[in-house]
Amino acid sequence: MERLVRERRKAGIMADGTTRFWVGASTLGALGSAATGVRSLDVDTEGRAVLGDPVEVGENPMFLAISPANGVLAIAHELTDGRVSTWTLEGDGLAAFGRAGSASGDPCHVAFDESGELAFAANYSGGRLTVHHIAPDASGDAVLEAEFAGTGPDRARQESSHPHQAVLDSARDRLLVPDLGADRVRVVGLAALPESLGHDPAADIVIHAGAGPRHLVVSGDLAVTANELDRTASVVDLAEGRELGWFPIGPETPPRGLGCSAIRLTRGGIVLVGDRDADALRGLRLDRDAATLELVATVPTGGRHPRDLELTRDERFALIADQGSDSIAIVALDGEGVPVEVVGTVSTPAPACLARVP
């Protein structure tokens, strides 16, 4: 019994149903206070939180992902000479798994394949998707890459391709890569891995001009994108490869040029979107049959610049990383996943990412 408890705690699954997260953060101090590393964060079924001590993992560990297959933690170090590093979870600490390797310019997101043997990094300034082999003591250097090109009507933000996320579309054996700079969701085939990546620009999904798709969630044959630049969310038909429509996330808020950030989908069909113009969490109901979104809730987080969000395993709470105010808001959700109210706040320097332990 004691061994089982230890193993569950190591995996982030506490006996009382507590959910463990790892918090990525900025160490540069450009927005929020400079952090000194990443931290564990445990949230119980009543929304009470316990924050761990910082663990040093290298400069600017802005985005974290954990493989469900093997429990390896991958970190995108968002730097001009970007890097990807990998770690194993050791209770409240981390141990190096592979050697940190080069990516491209400003990697801002990383995701695993189903095996946990490959990681994909979206490189915002590099205009590339890079592929990294994940193995003990292996170099984290990119082994493959897909380079994208394109622009959009916003000359200040869409002067070139800006991949912002990589999402595994398992049903179609491919990756979906929202490209903020080109108003596209890039479609990258995985059938030829590990020898090559398959990217045919003709297969990319076109999003309306000036949208700036940042992140997306997949729901069967549909996807929903959070569009940073025009404060909308688009419903996309993945089978047909086309945008079906787009909907404002909150037209009552004057734009400040920050727009949408992260997006999640609850089991009850509620799309949660971070709104950095309103410093709020938005809830939109997805009608799959009509392919529409309806705004049903807005909850101010009490902080500034909600960059990322994630759900507890039981979906009773959403956590929002407010990077600009050095805080994480804990928001109660109803049975569908509609945001209700902030029930707690955790203070931590410049939180930028919330990675839930599977």
CATH superfamily of the domain at 250-358: YVTN repeat-like/Quinoprotein amine dehydrogenase
Average pLDDT number: 94
Task: Using the 3D structure, state the CATH architecture of the domain at 250-358.
Answer: 7 Propeller
The helical percent reads under 10%
The profile of the biggest β sheet is: 5 strands, antiparallel
**What is the CATH C level class of the domain at 250-358, in words?**
Mainly Beta
- Distance from first to last alpha carbon: 21 Å
- Classify the fold: give the CATH topology of the domain at 250-358: Methylamine Dehydrogenase, Chain H
The total strand number stands at 30
SS element count, helices = 1
Shape: globular
What does the radius of gyration come to?
19 Å
Strand-residue fraction?
over 45%
Instruction: Give unreliable regions as ranges.
Output: 1-9
The computed structural class is: mainly beta
Task: Explain what this protein looks like in three dimensions.
This protein has 358 residues and is mostly beta strands. Helix content is 3%, strand content 48%. The longest helix has 9 residues, at 2-10. It has a domain at 250-358: Methylamine Dehydrogenase, Chain H (7 Propeller), CATH 2.130.10.
A few lines on this structure:
The chain is mainly β.
